[in-house]
Every structure is written in C-alpha cells, then in structure tokens.
Amino acid sequence: MPFLSTxxxxxxxxxxxxxxxxxxxxxxxxxxxxxxRDYPQIxxxxxxxxxxxxxxxxxxxxxxxxxxxxxxAWLPAGERLPAVILVHGGGWKSGYRSEFAPMAVRLAQQGxxxxxxxxRLSGEARYPAAVQDVQDAVRWVxxxxxELHIDPQRIALAGGSAGGQLASLAGxxxxxxxxxxxxxxxxxxSDFTSELALRYEDxxxxxxxxxxAWFGGRYAEKGALWRQASPxxxxxxxxxxxxxxxxxxxxxxxxxxDMMARMAQAGVASxxxxxxETPHSFWLFDPWLQxxxxxxxxxxxxxxx
Length: 305
What we know:
alpha/beta; Rossmann fold; eight-stranded mixed β-sheet; two-stranded antiparallel ribbon; 10 strands; 35% helix; globular
C-alpha cells in the first residue's frame, strides 16, 4: 500500500509516539495473571495474521505538537469494505491499542476492515481529549477510505470498558455528515451520574478514581463534565443504533438499561448481549472473544447493509 507507507514515512520524521510505560499494565498478560485462578479455562486470544488478511501498522491519524496518534488496520480483500474502529480500555489512564488486535483479526476474517487506535490517556490530557481523538480517527478513516478500500458510509465505532464509553460518546456526538452508522459498547459506562457508576467512579477512598483523574475532579467538583461525558445525555432520533455486550459484572453496565429505554422512545434500535459468568475484560480471552465477535458481526451486518 504505497500511499499509506509514504504517509507514515513523512509523519515519523515530524512526530513520535511515546514508548510503552512500564506502569501501564492493562494488557492481556497482566489481566490473565489476575483472572486465571478464578477462570482456569481462559486463554489469551491470539492475533496471528491469517491468510487473506493484511495488516497496515503504525499509521499516524492525528498529531499534537510532536505527539503522534497512531492506528493499526487489518484489511481483508475486497472493495468498499465496512469498517470498525476499535477503542481500547484501561480506565482512561492505561491500555494499548494492541488489546483489540485479536478481535480485529477475527472481524477482518468476516469481511470487515478493522482498525485499532491509540488515544491520549488521562495522564497526558484530560477529558475531552480522548473523545476528540476517537472522532479524529473516524475522520481520518473516512478521508482515506479509497486507499483503505473502505466504504465511507459504512463505518462503526466499537470499544471495551473505557473504550466502550469513548466509542459511545464519540459516536453519538459526531456532527451530522461526519457520524458513524453503528456503535458497539462492550462493558462500558453509559451514565457517569447514575447511582451505580458514582458508587465506584466517585469512591472517596480512591484519590483520585479513574474517572476523577480523567475529569480533573470528583462529581461534586466537576459535575458538569461527568454529565457531559455520559452517552445517555445524547439520545435522540437519528442517532446511530447501538449494541451493548456485557459481562456478569453489573458496575460496568451503569446507565445501559436507561439508555436503551430512552433509545426505544426515540425510535432508535438497540440490542443487548450478555455473556454469563464472565469477568470484566472478557474480550481479551478465549472462549469469550468468539461470541463477542459473533454478536458484533451479526449486529454490524444488520446495520451496515
């Protein structure tokens, strides 16, 4: 893909991506170490490149001073492919785009262009920087649709945990004409201001909590931002349809049922798939990744026709 290689070569001369932070341990190996005792059947999902899928890595989609924001793309053969932009989790303060490489590979095997993105974490830039980054990634993908063989009118956002919240919020707030056609929220919050979310995200014993660090203050101090960052606030007719895929951990579903009810009132399609007896971060592991992919593919084929 000469064009993208040229873009990357030019961009790397002007900006850099920070090296991995040893303190950033939200990845599959560290999460496996925490979960394996209680879930001995799990295995870290693989991301080996299969026949018929090519990977285009380290594409610069945005730049802030000398700071590069990059994405990796997994592309099947074909023209005018539907595309899914994947947003990693990590409590807005950690995580890597490689988290979604296994899911991207499996989506590509089903005929979807899948792109996993990095974004600015809370230690680098507070809310709303990460939301803006996700939206910039959508714009980049649409601008480079011809080179990527993507249909610019069939783009979806998906994410897990904090990435699910970011995909939802970025997707429902993109201006008309720039929007996505579907959203998948995997175990991400829909309402920071709900009682369930505040119990964990505004816990006074956490100084600060993950959300508090992202917003720069607790709910009592920065309530307007906590409300503004809640996807439930933007339910309206014409918004993208949404699929919610949930674990067996209720705290990560905060606001989901209310948001689905509001979407129904607004005449917008929503679906819910729950994976029983699963921990948070289930999408990093087999046997749970495949049902996550299957539910996503079925939803996307309905919505991106």
